[in-house]
Design a protein that fits this description.
Layout lengths: L1 H24 L3 H5 L4 E8 L2 E11 L2 E10 L2 E13 L4 E7 L7 E8 L4 E5 L12 E9 L2 E8 L2 E10 L3
Antiparallel strand pairs: 1-2, 1-10, 2-3, 3-4, 4-5, 5-6, 6-7, 7-8, 8-9, 9-10
Length: 166
């Protein structure tokens, strides 16, 4: 009887684990990434903000135009393209790094749930946990998300990002 109970517990554990994996792989990354379409603003300091305009370039490619404005003057402008890679089930973003222009950077984006998006600067898609810089983005609503940026496992910055209404 003890063996039967253990067998049932193991089978139940495996069933629940597989259902969790299956649910994760069923996320529609393209549909979820489209939550970003629109204009977003981050207040980065006194009289300074960054604005990101995200548009659909193709069905599975987003174009991101960004600028940082300080005291009413544009001090930085950039552009990136974020395209879906079916093989990795992630988005690959190619653009300029806002902190270190004119460096071209690659980041990888993916949703682990309908409200949680991750990005990583690691060039090895299969080992994103080894990335030195990571972000976790949590959508609080369709008009607000919180971005937590970590570097070498330590929180570097937390941004509150709000949708700009037309």
């Amino acid at each position: 009887m003890k063996i039967l109970g253990s067998t049932i517990m193991i089978a139940l554990f495996l069933l629940l684990s597989l259902n969790g994996i299956q649910a994760q792989t069923e996320l529609n990354q393209v549909e979820l990434m489209n939550q970003y379409i629109g204009t977003w603003k981050i207040e980065v300091g006194k009289d300074t903000s960054s604005i990101f305009e995200v548009t659909a370039f193709k069905e599975d490619v987003l174009e991101i135009n960004s600028k940082t404005v300080a005291n009413g003057k544009i001090i930085y402008e950039g552009k990136s393209l974020r395209g879906y890679d079916k093989e990795s089930n992630r988005y690959i973003d190619v653009g300029e790094d806002l902190d270190y222009p004119p460096a071209i950077i690659f980041t990888f984006w993916w949703f682990s749930s309908k409200d949680i998006c991750h990005l990583s600067n690691n060039l090895d898609l299969n080992n994103s946990e080894k990335a030195t810089i990571k972000s976790k983005i949590e959508f609080k609503s369709s008009d607000l998300f919180i971005q937590t940026i970590t570097e070498n496992g330590k929180v570097k910055k937390i941004n509150t990002v709000k949708r700009v209404k037309d």
